[in-house]
Amino acid sequence: MATEPSRELIVYFDNRFVPLGEAKVGILTHALHYGTGVFEGIRGYWDAGQRELFLVRAAEHYARWRQNCRILHIELPLTTEELTRLTAEMIRRNGFETNLYVRPLAYKSAERIGVHPDEHDAFAIVGLPFGDYLDSRVGLHAGVVSWRRVEDNAIPGRAKICGAYVNSALAGDEARRNGFDEAIFLTEGGNVAEGAASNIFLVRDGKLITPPVTDNILEGITRASVMELARQELELEVIERSVDRSELYVCEEMFFTGTAVEVAPTVRVDHRPVGTGHIGRLTAALRHLYTEATRGRLEAYRRWLLPVYRPAAVRAA
Ligand SMILES: Cc1ncc(COP(=O)(O)O)c(C=O)c1O
Q: Which fold has domain 10-129?
């Protein structure tokens, strides 16, 4: 996300399609001051061979968005299916033939001073060309940061609330300044929670372990996809349980998952090698499976994908 997107991109804003350059909010917008928005992140992968763009688990992302908006009392006027259709239409209007990131954002839109939210809600959907979020080809070096993950009773981490991402920004900034590629959050209680914008998995004794949804994590859709692939394709045991910090230092393998980071192997943590210090066998297998599944090359997982340009043709195939 290094370069600024073209102002000419067509986005959905204020109940219509407009160029990005015209999609503007006022300086007093509630969400801008108080963080009262809920967002999503959806990937789209362009397949040059099939000349098709596949949106990954759009229905799950929109279902999560709609659920999370309830936490902030934001009214989303469209169904999951309508939102998915709108997104496909936006992509077609742009004629994208590249990998994409789609950013839906719902927010408290009143323009006034005062933290108490009211019923003025708005939403927008933007799609941008998008490449790698983190370069994890040779494996990342992750570091536990001093910031703790937001507590559910403070700002629910599961809700993808804009204001909660100050927590992620502080963690990511600290990690980078300390020479790490990615941050690892602990909970206030000292358990491993997740990355700044990703979930975390460890391998111990050949089993896949990931913190439970009650340890202040975002209920990641990539996390769910990877758990399904691990169980179905590799017949791995997958355990959701609280994870101690020191387990990071004795595990065999480690990786992050997320829409943006995909499956990102971690080969060092807090200046210690993870396992052999090279990308682990199970991590590599899961990364490969996730790539194949999200590019439409695994029949069993085509149900995760929405073909944007020829929905009917691909459904019939
Ligand atoms: C804090 C946090 N955890 C985990 C994830 C991964 O979630 P998902 O796989 O649904 O993208 C994200 C990314 O959106 C995130 O921001």
A: D-amino Acid Aminotransferase; Chain A, domain 1 (3.30.470)
pLDDT single digits (tens) 264-294: 999 999 999 999 999 999 999 999 999 999 9
Is residue 121 lining ligand 1, measured as CB closer than 6 Å?
A: no
- How close is the Cα of 31 to the center of ligand 1, in Å? 20
Task: Tell whether ligand 1 has an atom less than 6 A from the beta carbon of residue 211.
Answer: no
- What is the β-pairing status of strands 100-108 and 42-47? antiparallel
Superfamily designation of domain 140-297: D-amino Acid Aminotransferase, subunit A, domain 2 (3.20.10.10)
Question: Quick check: CB of 182 below 6 Å from ligand 1?
Answer: no
| Cα gap 60→141, rounded to integer Å | 30
For the segment 208-246, what is each residue's pLDDT rounded down to a tens digit?
Answer: 999 999 999 999 999 999 999 999 999 999 999 999 999
To the query of whether residue 160 is one of the catalytic residues in this protein, the response is yes
Per-domain residue ranges of the chain:
10-129, 140-297
- Residue numbers of the chain with a pLDDT score lower than 50: 1, 314-317
Atom 2 of ligand 1: nearest residue by CA position = 197
Between CA 112 and CA 116, with CA 115 as vertex, the angle to 5 degrees is: 100
Distance between Cα 259 and ligand 1 center (Å): 7
> Catalytic one among 24, 108, 160, 207?
160
With a 6 Å cutoff on the Cβ, whether 222 touches ligand 1 is yes
Question: Residue of the nearest CA to atom 13 in ligand 1?
Answer: 197
